[in-house]
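step 3/5: co-fold with adenosine-5'-diphosphate
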Amino acid sequence: MLAVESLRVTFRRDRAPPVEVLRGVSLTLERGATLGIVGESGSGKSVLALSVIGLLPRNARAEGRVLLDGTDLLTLSERGMRDVRGRRIGMIFQEPMTALNPAMRVGVQIAEGLRVRRGLSRGNARTEALRLLDRVQIPQAGRRIDSYPHEMSGGERQRVGIAIALALEPDLLIADEPTTALDVTVQAGILDILGDLVADLGLSLILISHDLGVIARLADRTLVMHRGAEIEQDATERVLRRPGHDYTRTLIDAMPRRARATLEAGRA
Ligand SMILES: Nc1ncnc2c1ncn2[C@@H]1O[C@H](COP(=O)(O)OP(=O)(O)O)[C@@H](O)[C@H]1O
Ligand SMILES: [Mg+2]
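step 4/5: write tokens
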């Protein structure tokens, strides 16, 4: 459903030559599949995600193609892209607080998109918001729907972020470091929810992390990136068991011990 072809992104800078941060990246993602994108901080993962949802900063120039069911998103107008965002592609960010309005009850924030963009009445939007909070496993959703973001834990706020991303029923989710700001114990719950969504709703997922342990839990295929370029891209299992590159091996060595133990038990 998604094919990125030879994507190059360059940033213009003041009093300095332009800097190329994506140097010809290609990938494909099938419907219902999960692609992991892994690489150290600064390797271009977020710039890749922002290119796909059309949210690159103004000083960026993108070349190549980003095909969503055959339509090149790089050629769409801002108005055309607004239709794609939310409806076709849902985005989950690293820091859920940045996606949420601290001054609004979470239920109202989820309902807002439903009213404005799906045309639901206030009552129907609230019912749907409640269903979404259940879907992301917020306990006692009927009570928590009227909470403010600061009354929730980091993990709950990220669940709300996922509910907002799901509200317009997209068929592709992009989760950029969705668990990086969270405690290890909370991370697993968020990853389980993402895995359930892919399995139950048939969504496609791009899961971005600097941590190969996170990627290994969910991704069918993995793209390893370094300095804006692909290092390798293959079935996750193959990448983990027979890394084709020293750089991938350093990422495997950096995996949390628990994830590595699981991997090694599988290999034995
Ligand atoms: N708005 C920007 N202007 C200039 N350079 C940027 C901008 N955003 C990101 N970059 C640069 O692009 C590179 C890739 O960044 P990013 O995609 O955020 O990395 P990652 O998400 O893998 O940590 C980095 O070198 C970063 O400094
Ligand atoms: Mg990033």
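step 5/5: annotate
DSSP finds twelve helices and ten strands in the chain.
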